[in-house]
Amino acid sequence: MRLCLGISRISFHPPDCNPGNLLVQAEHCVSLQKIEQALELFYQAEQHGADADRCAGGRWYCWMLKGDFAQAWQESDAIRRRDAPDPHRFWNGEDLQDRRVILRSLHGYGDAIQMLRYLPMLRQRAKHVVLEVPPQMYDLARCFSGVDTVIVWGEPSSWDLQIEVMELPYIFRSELHTIPRQIPYLTLPPGAQIQNNADHGLNAGILWIGGEWEPSRSIPFALLHPLLNRKEIRFWSLQRPEDNLEWNDFWLSRNALPLACGNGLLSLAAAIQQMDLVISIDSMAAHLAGALGKPVWTFLPRYADWRWMMHRSDSPWYPTMRLFRQTQQGKWDDVVTAVSAQLSASAARSAC
């Protein structure tokens, strides 16, 4: 008998028993964060013959959104027992103790920054840790403690076991109260510091455009004008230079052009290090600010990624982060208004 905590198996009845239809309905419910319905539909779909790993993966996402990591790891265990080929699974389940481990970073930069907090824990078990990263991340990766060697993709290395960075929370069976929260866990060397003439008072770095792969995270620049038209706060762009066209037009009309950084992850981290506050969409910059222990306010879509869970204004991953969520998918006005109100309060406290 399957135990399903927190879900009534009587009150919700799917309209049919076709496994394909049930699976599509379940995944649609996940996209709308109707989690209880989604979980029930995934169980029903699996019972009627849908792919077990796909159903378990869907339930994993639901449990993570709910913050019930222990249930999520049970889904991961079930997937591992079935042992279907998975290009995202590198760890073979063997003990890490006194082994040479290569930690491969094959996901996005933000994913890596979030999960490299586990490096010291990994190093306590392993004999030697090699961190393999994309070339663009090499300089930044050397700033994390707990790694013996940093290499870029394709460089030769010897190892006993391999892990992908996103497997680390599962390996250490993290729950909300055991996530490593020591900050900063990213420390920049003195040579990485840059000069951007940041003013006295409150200096806030801001980032509003994300990757093209998920445009729903980005905010139209015009909506930020109420935030930027404030004399008591000095804003600095954390965008890449090629994303600053609207920013340049806005500030040149005011005879100012506050740009915090150039290209490169280490340059971005150095700029963030000088800020009093970072305001960012769900992006690598938000993860960098959290890893550096800087106050960071993160704009989130209505249906945000699993790592931000649901209904929370804080994050168990980053003690200095505050979350501002859309109340309606695709509408940023209320979020900008809420951030503007908090900025007024922060500026008033800073002036005291």
Notes on the structure:
The chain is α/β, with parallel strands linked by helices. It has 3 domains: 64 residues; 71 residues; 152 residues, Rossmann fold. Helix content is 36%, strand content 13%. It has a 5-stranded parallel β-sheet with strand order 6-5-7-8-9, with helices on both faces. The protein has a 4-stranded parallel β-sheet with strand order 3-2-1-4, covered by helices on one side. Strand 7, helix 12 and strand 8 form a beta-alpha-beta unit. Helix 2 runs antiparallel to helix 3 and helix 3 runs antiparallel to helix 4. The longest helix has 19 residues. The protein is globular, with a radius of gyration of 22 Å.
The CATH superfamily of the largest domain turns out to be Glycogen Phosphorylase B
Main pleated sheet: 5 strands, parallel
E-strand count: 9
- Quote the beta fraction: 5-15%
DSSP summary: helix tally: 13
How many separate domains make up the residues?
3
